[in-house]
Structures are given as structure tokens and as C-alpha cells.
Amino acid sequence: MIVEVLQQMLNGLAIGSVYTLIALGLTVVFGILGIAHFAHGSVAMSGGYLTFLFNERLGLPFYPAMALAMVAGAVLGLLIERLAYRPVRDAPHINAFIIALGLTMMIEGINLLLFGADQVVIQTPYRGVLDVFGVAVAELRLQVILTTCVLIGVIAFLISRTKTGKSIRAVAQNRGAAVLMGVNVNQVSAVVFSVSSALGAAAGALVGALLAIAPGLGEGLAVKGFAVLILGGLGSIPGAIVGGLVLGVSESLAAGFISSAYKDVIAFLVMIVVLLFRPEGLLGKR
User: Fold this and answer.
1) Distance from the first to the final alpha carbon of the chain
2) Three-state DSSP class for residue 132
3) What is the value of pTM for the model shown?
4) Residues 51-99: pLDDT tens digits?
5) How many degrees, rounded to 5, is the angle at CA 42 between CA 78 and CA 19?
6) Do the strands 135-138 and 129-132 form a parallel or antiparallel pair, or are they unpaired?
7) Which of 81, 89, 162, 239 could form a disulfide with 283 if both were Cys (CB 3.0 to 4.6 A apart)?
8) Cα dist. 81→41, 103, 176, 201 in Å?
9) Nearest to 33 by CA among 243, 234, 275
């Protein structure tokens, strides 16, 4: 019984790592700019499809293909920020919300047109399985968890140790005061969207390797990302990390011990129970 629980928890940590990357991208955009970027899941799927393209058609190994997809994702994020969100940054929030929905449909349509309707799986060399005290540890799942940890470390360093990170934190705390102190808000907004989209592209690549990529999957990832955002606490980066892992483990335990048909129900039930006792989320501020 204990071995089976550990097995399901390990599986949950892997998919929870993907949720964490999605939620981190949403967190930096929402927490700093106040934009609910619902198209983020579709951007993530674009990153997954591009990783598949670079891996299968150009013959690049998995990680170089993912890195190239992240660069493309960052460029896509810059274009989205400049052409879609910046013109309505000071408009009512409903404007950005409608634009986000439109972007979702547009990006999903482009993915469908370019890559077709068939689901694809990104091939990796990580196919081994380790036996650790009776728990089957798939090498690919370990790679997903380790990759997420590295990306979290890079984001933490960027925000806490660099001049750009200080500007991002200043805008998040008080945009008006940051402008008076000479912070270029347009530049901060562009950096935030590029970083967010690069994280989304990485998440899409990991989903494609761990599960599969298919049309419409991006919308589901966006919903899970916002669930993690609420569970961990709006605008909290540590909350996004904890919330993603909690949601992933809850889903895996529900699928393993109840039924895979109810895994989403159980996961969201956990979120509701947490919010009943902590409306601000696990690590959110009151």
C-alpha cells in the first residue's frame, strides 16, 4: 500500500511540475501586470509543437529542441504583449479578457492549421525505469522534475538578483512609484511576457514528452494553471510552485485509488476545501 502511494505521488510530482511551469507563467503576468492571460495554455502547446518539429524534422536532441522552442515562445510573447495587450493596458479589464479569449482561438487555429489534428508525442532518449525500494521511477519523469527545478531556479535568480528583476518587483509593488523612479514599464511588460511565454513553451515540450500534444489541450492547461494560481495565492511565485505540486499529486492519487474519470473532480475539490479555510490561497497574502 505504501509503495503504491509513493508511486502515485511520484507520478503526481511529474505532472505537477508541468502545472507549476504553466502557473509560474501566469503568475508573473497576473501578479505584475494584472492581466489574466488565458491564451497562455495555447502558447504552451505552440512550444510543444515546435519542440516536436525541431526534434523530428531537424533531428535536434530533446533539450536543444526545447531550448529553441523557448526562444520562439519568448518572441511570440513579445509580439502578444506589444500588439495585443499593450494597447489596452490602461483600459477596463474586460478588454484584455476578450482579447485573451480571441488570442486563444487564433493560436489554437494556427496550431491546427500548421500541425494538423493528430496528437503527437515528443520522443526522448529517457526511456529507462529505475527501481527504488520497490517504486518504479521512470527516467523521463525524473527529467521533467529536474528540468522544472532548474527553470524555477533561473526565474528566482532573475527576479531576486538582477537589475531587471528589481524593476519587475518595483512595478509589481507600485507601478506609479516605479514610473516616477525611472522604471521603463513598457520594457518590464515585454520582459514579463517573454519570460512567461518561454516557461509556457517549456511546459508544452514536457507535456509532449510525458503525455502527448493534441488540439484543444492548451485550454485545459490554462484552466489548470489558473486553478494552481488561485490555490497557491494570486501573484505568489512560491504559491504557484506549491499549488502546482499539490494539484498534481491530488490528481494522481485520485486516479490511482478512485478512478481516472474523477481525477479532475477530486483535484478541484481539494482546491475548494483549501480556499474555504484560506481564501487567499496556501501562500497568498491576506
Assistant:
1) 39
2) strand
3) 0.92
4) 999 998 888 999 999 999 999 999 999 999 999 998 888 788 888 889 9
5) 100
6) antiparallel
7) 239
8) 15, 11, 20, 16
9) 234
